Amino acid sequence: MDCPECGLPATARNEGRAWSTGGPVEHVRLHCVLGHRFFGPATTLLRRLRAA
Ligand SMILES: [Zn+2]
User: Fold this and answer.
1) CA of 36 to the centre of ligand 1 (A)
2) Centre of ligand 1 from the C-alpha of residue 48, in Å
3) Which of 20, 21, 24, 44 gets the highest tally of CB atoms within 10 A of its CB?
4) 46 CA → ligand 1 middle, Å
């Protein structure tokens, strides 16, 4: 997985599922080599990745 901020390799850690309005959502924590940190639904982070 790449960092949405800088595009460098980031490690993703699965944080389990949280219930949202649309149903259970997989949450992940991203930590890139530059120290950027992201936490949120995997789908949201992936969408940010594609938009970048
Ligand atoms: Zn980064």
Assistant:
1) 5
2) 13
3) 44
4) 14
In whole angstroms, what is the distance from residue 12 CA to residue 29 CA? Answer: 6
Distance CA 30, CA 35 (A): 9
What's the confidence (pLDDT) of residue 52? Answer: 62
How many angstroms separate the alpha carbon of residue 18 from the centre of ligand 1?
A: 24
| Residues 20-42 as b or e (16 or more Cβ within 10 Å = b) | eeeeeeebbebebeeeeebeebb
How far is the CA of 31 from the CAs of 11, 19, 22, 43, in angstroms?
Answer: 5, 23, 26, 16
Separation of 1 CA from ligand 1 center, angstroms? 11
Tell me which amino acid residue 14 is: N
